Amino acid sequence: MADYDVIIIGSGASGLMCAAEAGQRGRRVLLLDHARKPGNKIRMSGGGRCNFTNYTVEAENYLSHNPHFVKSALSRYTQWDFLALVQRYAIPYHERDHGQLFCDDSAKAILDMLLAECERGGVELRLKCAVDSVARGDDGFTLKTETGELSCQSLVIATGGLSIPTAGATPFGYRVAEQFGIRVWPPCAGLVPLTLQPEEKARFAPLSGIAVDAVISCDDQSFRENILFTHRGLSGPAILQISNYWQPGEALVINWLPDVVLEDELGTLKGEQPKQHLKTALARWLPQRLVATLVDRALLDSPLGSLGQAQIDAVVKSLQHFAIKPGGTEGYRTAEVTRGGVDCDAISSKSFEARAVPGLYFIGEVLDVTGWLGGYNLQWAWSSGWCAGQVV
């Protein structure tokens, strides 16, 4: 007889949710992790306040090579279901922009709630226990660990992605998938600041610390949020969002004045105040240092009345169709999530069991599912963990 009905490797968001659900169904559950503490990324999320879900969650908020994969889980365990759990534990929370929900106090409240749910289900939590190897036999799986051999009927891989290595991220989950012949889409950093080419970096470095509400576009995808200049490149919510869609070598297009029809405004001002300098006119909308970096200095020092249509077009292009080609990303060190991962075509969207390997399950960030910034990745963890927890 196996030591456990279920062993879950990874005590992050999806692993904790899965363990709690399976345990409360009466399953003998062991939750394993090589880290010293459970839920490291939960603690760190939302600047320590945990952006635990969003009022609006749709399949469109996720990227995957199989875009329909998320629909079943998100419809079966919704943001409202998780919110009901939060309310049951009387955790105070608040809404920020775009329906994002955060704890009023510490992210630890969400972690404590999940640990309490695991305790309710009689889950055994074993930390500082790395898994050396996984083998499949006739009646389940055998794991060799630092502390000895373990066996189970169902094995759940909830090891997350490669983002934030300081939180304990490893490629273990991908290696298990490949061991059993399951395709892994190449992982890369997601929701990550972008770096600039040396020339652009030198040009924009003096703007470090300035944040501007702007619209950023890449291919057919656009986001409107703050863009923050850093000494390495570009960050802020809009940049993190578009980083999920940006590919190396592509240009981004930024509209620094999304609420202004600049050509019309400059035309009106030119008629009303022809002696006003362009830089004075633009200062009503944007920081002067940014304007001085983006617009040709000779134009900035010109009176509005002296500007021809071609010059006004050049100003509009500089400020509302500004193209920039990033040099790369800051990588996993600062990435909030990992793009790519275990191929969803190989996994059941209802049970999260590997189609070709009965008893083996993959949940959470280890899968090729990446959510937008704003609570979507944690909601994916809750939904996928809950669904697997009903069947393992």
Beta strand count: 21
Share of helix, binned: 25-40%
Please, how many helices? Answer: 14
Alpha carbon gyration radius: 25 Å
Give the uncertain stretches in residue-range form: none
The largest pleated sheet is described as: 7 strands, mixed
Folded structure, characterized:
- The chain has 392 residues and is of the alpha+beta class.
- The chain has 14 helices and 21 strands.
- It has helices spanning 13-24, 40-44, 70-76, 79-88, 108-120, 172-179, 198-204, 237-243, 262-272, 278-282, 288-294, 297-300, 309-320, 376-389, and strands spanning 4-9, 29-32, 51-54, 62-63, 93-95, 100-103, 124-126, 131-137, 140-145, 148-157, 184-190, 194-195, 211-218, 221-229, 233-235, 252-255, 322-324, 328-329, 337-342, 360-362, 370-371.
- Strands 1, 2, 7, 8, 9, 10 and 20 form a 7-stranded mixed β-sheet that branches. It has a 7-stranded antiparallel β-sheet with strand order 17-16-13-14-15-12-18.
- Strand 5 (93-95) and strand 6 form a beta hairpin.
- Helix 3 crosses helix 14 (376-389).
- The radius of gyration is 25 Å and the shape is elongated.
- The chain starts with a strand and ends with a helix.
- The relative contact order is 0.20.
- The model has no long low-confidence stretch (mean pLDDT 96).
Which key terms come to mind for this protein?
single chain, 21 strands, 392 residues, seven-stranded mixed β-sheet, alpha+beta, elongated, seven-stranded antiparallel β-sheet
